[in-house]
C-alpha cells in the first residue's frame, strides 16, 4: 500500500512538471515567460469613455496596475512612482505603456478615473467598466480585491478595498514578464522596466 501511495505521488509530481512545461518556456536569457497572453479577453471602458479590450495590452510592453480612486496611499503612490519611472526609462513615451484598472467600478466611473489619473500622469490610462465585467477581469488576471466596510456595524455603508498592490509587467505580446512590488527599490523598479522594454 505504501509503495502504491509513493507511485501515485510520483505520478502527480511528473504531471505537475509536464503541465508547468506546457505553460512556460525558457527564453534565451534564461528568464521564464508565459507562452500565451496573461489574463483574459475583456471589453471595458477607458477614462476617455471609449471601449477598450485586451488588445490594448499588445504591441508595446505594458505596466498594469489594479486599484481604486478612494485608495488613501498605495494607489496614488504607485501611480506617481510609476509615472516617474516611465519618464526615466522611456522619456519620449513611445516604447512603454501603462494602465490603471479600477477594482471599485461602483464608484470609479470613466469620468472619475479620467480626473484622478490625469492629475497624476498623462502616460497612464485609467480603465473602468460594468461591475460584472471588472469582476471577470480581476479573476482572470488573478488579482485579489475585496470590499471592506469602514464600519463593521454598517456593512452597507462606506467602504474601502483591499487589493493586490503589485504592478504587473507584460511584454509586447501581452505575456506575463514579472512584477514590481509596492515599495520596491526605485532603482530596481527602473531596471525591471528597462529590461521589459529591451525584451519588447
List keywords for this structure.
200 residues; alpha+beta; Glutaredoxin; two-stranded antiparallel sheet; globular; disordered N terminus; SCO family protein; copper; Thioredoxin-like_sf
Question: Can you walk me through this structure?
Answer:
The chain has one domain (37-199): Glutaredoxin. The protein has helices at residues 2-23, 74-89, 110-118, 131-140, 186-199; strands at 24-26, 32-34, 43-46, 51-53, 62-67, 97-102, 124-128, 145-149, 159-163, 167-170, 176-180. It has 200 residues and is of the alpha+beta class. A seven-stranded mixed beta sheet has the order 4-3-7-6-5-10-11. Strands 1-2 form a two-stranded antiparallel ribbon. Helix 2 packs across helix 5 (186-199).
